[in-house]
Amino acid sequence: xxxxxxxxxxxxxxxxxxxxxxxxxxxxxxxxxxxxxxxxxxxxxxxxxxxxxxxxxxxxxxxxxxxxxxxxxxxxxxxxxxxxxxxxxxxxxxxxxxxxxxxxxxxxxxxxxxxxxxxxxxxxxxxxxxxxxxxxxxxxxxxxxxxxxxxxxxxxxxxxxxxxxxxxxxxxxxxxxxxxxxxxxxxxxxxxxxxxxxxxxxxxxxxxxxxxxxxxxxxxxxxxxxxxxxxxxxxxxxxxxxxxxxxxxxxxxxxxxxxxxxxxxxxxxxxxxxxxxxxxxxxxxxxxxxxxxxxxxxxxxxxxxxxxxxxxxxxxxxxxxxxxxxxxxxxxxxxxxxxxxxxxxxxxxxxxxxxxxxxxxxxxxxxxxxxxxxxxxxxxxxxxxxxxxxxxxxxxxxxxxxxxxxxxxxxxxxxxxxxxxxxxxxxxxxxxxxxxxxxxx
Length: 441
Ligand SMILES: Cc1ncc(COP(=O)(O)O)c(C=O)c1O
Fold this sequence. Notes:
By secondary structure, the protein is α/β, with parallel strands linked by helices. It is 39% helix and 14% strand.
């Protein structure tokens, strides 16, 4: 099916969303506050979600493999989380000071992730990585940040470099150039961000050796969750650890998404101990959240006792009790057995998609870890962001729209997530819908 036909079907099913979008553009640029979720001609408006399912403003039901970009690991409106939120909300929505809920969530996270000896909360993953980067600069006294090509760590200036887009002008694969991902980035940022090629230990070592005296930290999403879900090749992270330790460079592991892949996060799965870790998404149980933490000696920069902190971190809604309680209720549900079930759902989905691609001889692949998966439309060996770029650049959008038209929601870029609210039948529904979409595309 052509893109036009998929779009025609989409618009015919979503007239109420179109009307809402028309009202929205009068008061917001593009009618929107969230670039990631927008697509032309307009995104559908959500009316409600329950378990694995969402309904749009026209009452159309879809199975949700997006889960608010991997945040809703228990599905929509899980009763225990809703109950916890209601109970806390009834006794006050926010206060100018801490509550016990914050202590409990911090305890749960430090217990699960031993490298995180001490942590602080924010309202988003963006604020978490922003603080972790500032902290690394303060601790080391060095100005630069190293990040991987294709990795997304939020929307503050320091990490809006070489995230996505056409890679033709991105320079040599082994010595990538820093490319602004946004208008408005000051030139100082591009001078102070070093870009590394994922899964190339020799090239990374060479770059870091050259820049070592200036580099405060390497920020790493261990599964490249926004760049194709490409786990590190054997020996890659140990090499990174070795070169950074030798030069006093901190490693910030961005687990905003990857934390959901194991009880103790991806660092438990990979047997890796970073200096700092950032969190978001699932730890807030569906409400706005972020956290950053790690080595006690490094986190001490935020300690306000004895003469005040060396880094000040305010935030009117940091650690607000409603989010903290939702986080505690969510982590309580994420037992080792729950993680095993999530892994099984992910494996069933990836297995089904791989069989479908093989049986239909499609040029495609599926990657993923635990409950996460990514649909790729290339036959190239997948190693880094550049290798994930499809020849038919429009196909991911056709698949996304085709699945929407067939009652399945995932992300536009190809990332998807199973939730604990899903059944095997929901997963099979995904695979069967994809089969129909591919048959007409
Ligand atoms: C790996 C990673 N880091 C940071 C962020 C930013 O988090 P937030 O959207 O809560 O600001 C995201 C968001 O998708 C993410 O995937």
